[in-house]
Design a protein that fits this description.
Elements (H helix, E strand, L loop, with lengths): L5 E2 L8 E3 L1 H8 L20 E3 L2 H7 L10 H13 L13 H21 L15 H18 L6 E2 L1 H17 L7 H10 L8 E8 L2 H10 L4 H7 L6 E8 L5 E8 L1
Parallel strand pairs: 4-6
Antiparallel strand pairs: 1-3, 2-3, 2-5, 5-7, 6-7
Helix pairs in contact: 3-4
Length: 259
C-alpha cells in the first residue's frame, strides 16, 4: 500500500500535489438527486501531499486522456487504421482484450513520439541559456528538455498559472522563507478559470542566490526528488512559473503544474 504524507501548507518545502477530483469524490455524500452543482465542496480543507516516487512510478500513465486531447486520439487512431498499423478486431476472438490493450499502447506511443520529437533536445538548442536572467524565463524550456529525454510529452505554458506562481514567488521573497501556496485558495482560483475538470495540481518552490544554482539543485540534489517527481509526472500537461528576488538579493522560484 502506498502511504501518502498529508501536510499543511508550511510544513515542507519539497514538491507537493493535490488532487481536487479525488478530494471531491471522498467528500461527496450519497444522494438520490444530484443538481450538478459541486461548487460547495471547493470550500473543504484541501491538503498538499508530498510527491512520492512510489506514487509517481505506479500511477503516472504513459499518456493522460483529457477533454483537450480526445479529438487528437481519434484522429491518430483513424490515421493508424488507414495505414494498417492497427486493424479492426473481432470481439469474439479469445485474445480480443489483449489485442485491444496492445493497440492502445501503439496508439499512445505514436502520439508521445510525435509530440516529443517537436521538442528540440540537442545541446546547441540551449547554448544561449547560460546567464541567470535567461534562466528565469527559460525554466519551462529546460524542464521540457528533460521530459523529452524521458519520452514524456512537453508541458504547455499557461498564463494564468504564471500569474499565480508569480504571486507566490513574490510572497515568499517578501517573507524571505519558503512555503507552499494555500491549497484551498490556489485550487479555488485554478478551478474557477477552467471549464474542464482539474484532476491534479502540483507545486515546487525553491530558493538560492542565482537561478543557475537553483535549477541544478532541483535537477540533481537528492533532497529535491519530490520536485522532480512533479517535473516528470505524465499526469501534468500545463505549467506556470514565477520568480522573485528578496531585498537581500536571494531568488525564489515557484513552479505550478496542472493536469
Amino acid at each position: 500500500m502506498i502511504k501518502c504524507l498529508k501536510i499543511r501548507n508550511s510544513r515542507t518545502t519539497r514538491g507537493v500535489y493535490c488532487s481536487p477530483t479525488d478530494h471531491i469524490s471522498k467528500c461527496m455524500k450519497p444522494a438520490r438527486h444530484l443538481d450538478g452543482d459541486s461548487t460547495d465542496v471547493l470550500s473543504d480543507d484541501y491538503q498538499w501531499t508530498l510527491s512520492t516516487s512510489a506514487d509517481h512510478h505506479v500511477h503516472s500513465p504513459v499518456y493522460s486522456v483529457t477533454n483537450s486531447n480526445v479529438e487528437l486520439l481519434r484522429a491518430k487512431e483513424t490515421e493508424l487504421r488507414g495505414s494498417r498499423v492497427i486493424k479492426s478486431l473481432d470481439s469474439s476472438e479469445e485474445k480480443y482484450e489483449d489485442e485491444i490493450k496492445a493497440q492502445r499502447k501503439v496508439l499512445l506511443r505514436s502520439i508521445v513520439t510525435e509530440r516529443v520529437n517537436l521538442v528540440p533536445i540537442g545541446e546547441h538548442h540551449y547554448a544561449h541559456i547560460s546567464d541567470h536572467h535567461n534562466l528565469i524565463s527559460s525554466t519551462h524550456i529546460l524542464i521540457n528538455k528533460e521530459r523529452a529525454k524521458h519520452r514524456i510529452l512537453p508541458l504547455c505554458r499557461k498564463k494564468e498559472l504564471d500569474e499565480l506562481a508569480s504571486e507566490q514567488a513574490k510572497h515568499i521573497a517578501t517573507r524571505r522563507g519558503k512555503e507552499h501556496s494555500n491549497a484551498n485558495d490556489l485550487i479555488l482560483r485554478i478551478t474557477k478559470n477552467n471549464t474542464a475538470p482539474v484532476r491534479r495540481i502540483g507545486e515546487n518552490i525553491c530558493g538560492g542566490m542565482d537561478m543557475d544554482s537553483i535549477y541544478h539543485k532541483m535537477m540533481e540534489s537528492p533532497k529535491y526528488l519530490a520536485d522532480r517527481n512533479n517535473m516528470f509526472d505524465r499526469r501534468f500537461s500545463s505549467y506556470g512559473v514565477g520568480v522573485a528576488q528578496s531585498s537581500k538579493g536571494k531568488y525564489y522560484i515557484c513552479q505550478l503544474y496542472m493536469g
